[in-house]
Structures are given as structure tokens and as C-alpha cells.
Amino acid sequence: MENTEAGWLSLTTYLVVGVGTLTVIWLWRSCQELMTFKRMGVPGPTPIPVFGNMLTIFRKGIIHIFPHWNKQYDKIYGIFMPAPALVINDLDLIKDIAIKQFQSFPNRKVPTLFKFKPWNANLLSVRDDQWKHVRGILSPTFSSGKLKKMVPAIERVVSNLVSNVTEKAKTGNMIELKEFCGCYAMDVIAGAAFGLQVDSVKNPKDPFVYHAFNALFGRQWLMPVYVSMPFLTRLLHKIGLTFSPKESTDFFYNVTEGALKERRQEKKKFSDFLQLLVEAEKEQETQQDVDAEIDHRSQLHTSSQWTRKGLVRDEIHSNALLFLAAGYDTVSTAMSYTLFSLAANPACLHKAQQEVDEKLGKKPADYSTVNELVYLDMCMNEALRMFTPGFASDRECIEDTEVGGYKVPKGMQVVFPFYAIHNDPKIWPNPSKYDPERHTPEARAARHPCSFLPFGIGPRNCIGMRLAQLELRMALAAVLQRVTPVLCEKSVYPPSNFQFGRITSSDGLWVKFQLRE
Hints:
Distance between the termini: 94 Å
Radius of gyration: 25 Å
């Protein structure tokens, strides 16, 4: 008995010493890492062990903290999230890193969420040759010719939108725009990506709608854990506590599989994203009609060892999910804040409606006529400036590179805080004022090309940018043709109480719709 007790004591001692030693080593390495920017001579806020600057970010809010740091530390500074990241505010440096020095900064830092299936093979998570390969195949999917094929699916959703917005105006009830515009964005994704006809306003319990929200926001409370304690995520996944509940990712796997099977039967042609992916596998050598803003294929040189053609099944499933995630929140945010800003600025609203009446009359906007709505586009761009959905982007250094007089080591992340840049008074005078005139052709030509980047910059910009702009313009035109958004007793303008990690106001974006004469 005594020998058994002694054995357990000995084992316990070894375990305590072992865990203690590992903890000391881990803390020592953490403290060494926290010295990174001091050794580089880069200014920045003081971090704390393990968490870096994440507790400050959580407390102040990611939307508010970057403008504060930008003002304090100016054009380049270092923070810990919790790994070291170099924040770049200098517009010339952003252009250098994202375009001129792209070969040294070709990757994004892979978000912890995207390191696991089914998210691990999408454009935001793949790297190096695999990213170049996938991007090269997907780019032609968003060409002018391919976008025109998606227009019928968008038109069906716009028709539902017109019906719903007219009905809301007749009731006179207050409407929360983020939720209302989210229904439109969700329905476009269902139609333009998966070939499904959904009306989220009238059928909020539709399985597609339910599982889409569950996949994107079902366990949003886990996001702070993913960001501040990434070392816990593998354990969380092993016990089944994933950010996107398995039942919902399985639902989209099955929907995608069924849709792909249908589209590979050549008897019937669909005009949606999955059909275009199937065609891209066959046509990637001949597709040339790609807008220069998203066509970076000449810069995407894979190594001689890369021989695979087409997309593998994981890449198709993962990018279908990315289409859902990126297409929902960005479009719903841009659309809702444009309408909310117009409601709060009646002179701009009147001018936008006047343009819609003159250019369209009572006809719905189509692929050609929607591009004639210049002032409406200016209104949308000003909302994107003030309330940028993609509030930040990043790149990862793959070789020691000099940036702004500092030697950036291999593996370091650089961050571009777009929201803070778009609201910087030194770049945009009186930035809290909604002024679409900032986006006239003359004003754009006079500004630095990196002063307005709502869809990113360089070869890793938003590949779906032109599709997003198309569906936004068609929707906004349809709404302004029929109704006038006005502020109501629940309106809080300007919105500022944003949720962590999203440009979504906790106060809501409340308006009423009034039927036009």
C-alpha cells in the first residue's frame, strides 16, 4: 500500500513539474514575443502576456480602437492579436505591400475558424500555389458574361423585394433595415449560388434560411475565444464545439452535392454560381472576359510542381460556404446603411430618386441600365466609406522585407485598417458627414487610389465585388422607385454602437417606408 501511494505521489510530482516547466517555457516565449516591436523600433500600445492587446480591443471595440491608435501612433505601429501584427495606415505603403511587393506578401493570415473543415479550402484560407490555382479558376466566374447569366436569379429576388417593400409601406410599421436587407441578400445567395427560390421575409423558417443563419451566427459567442485564445480551438473542435454547428454545415454539403450532381448532367443548364464552377473546370483555358479589377491571373504564377487542373470537392464546398458568408453580411450591411443614410439625408434621397425616375421610369433596372445610375452609386459608395463592412484586411510576410524603413520578418502579419482610413479626417474632411459628392469622377481622380478600398486591393481583393455591386444597385433602384425611407421614433442616427467584429448597430437601423405617389 505504501509503495502504491509513493508511486502515485511520484507520478503526481512528475506531472506537476512537467506542466509547470511547460507553462514557464510558454510564458517565457510569450514575453519574448512581446518584445518584437521594441527590438524593431516600432511604436505601439503596451501588450500584456498571453492576450497581447486583445483585451483592449474587446473593451473598446474593434471599430473604435483603430482610429484611436491611428491618431496616437500615426502611419505604422505594432499590436498583438495576440501574435504580433504591424498596422499600416500609410496609403503609399499599403499600395506597395498589396501590389508592388505582392510576391513578398501573397497570403492572408489564416483565421482560426478557417483552419478546419468545411472552411479550410476557401479563398480566404488557402495559400501560395493552391490560392493562385483556385483564384485563377474562380476569377472568370465573375466576368461580365457570367454575371449576365446570374441576372435572372437576381431579378426574381428583386421582384419579391418590391412586393415585400410595398407591403411594408402599406402597413406603416417600423422596419429594421439590417434584418430586412439581410433577407434580400440571403435570397440572392440562394438563387444566384444554389439555384433555389427562397423568400426569407415571408418564409423565415425555410431550411435554407435557418441553416444559413445557424452556420454564420449560431455560435458567434465563440469568436472572442477563436481570436484571443486560438490554442484552444483544436480542443473545442475535438469535442464538437465548432463555430458553425455540424447540422448546418452538413445541410450545405448535401445541398451543394445535390446541386453539383444536377449541373453535371448536361441536359439542363443553370445560371448560378455552382453551374459556373462546373463550367470553370472545363473552360478555364479559354475564359478571357474578366474585369481588370478582379482579373489578376497574369500575376498568379504557380510553381512548376503544380499540375492539378480544376477544383477538388473540398474546394467547391468550401468556396460555396464562403459565397454564403461573404455575400450575406457585406451586401446586407451596404444596402441597409445606404437606405438608412438616405433616410437621414432627404436632399440626397430626393436626388437619388430623381435620377432613378429619369433613367428608369417604372421599368426595373437590368444589367445595362443599372450602370447609368451614377448618383445612386455615389450614395452607395459614401455609405460604404462611412460603414465599411470589410473593416480591415491583412497580408502575411513570407520573406524578410523592408517596409517603411522597418525590416518586417518572415511570418509577420500586416494589417490594413480600412474602416479607420475611411473615417480619417486627414484623408476625408468632416468624415462623419454623409456626402455622396465625395465620389464624383473628379473627386476620385484627385484622391489617393488607396484612400477608398471597400473591396480590398491588389490580387487578393474581393473576387465577388462586381456581383455585389450589381445586386446592390438593382435592389436600391427597385426600393427607391416604389417607396421613400424616412426616419422614425426608433431611429438612432448616426449609428455607432457596433457589435464586436461586425458593422452592425446594436440600436438597429429603424425606418418607415412611405409609398411614393
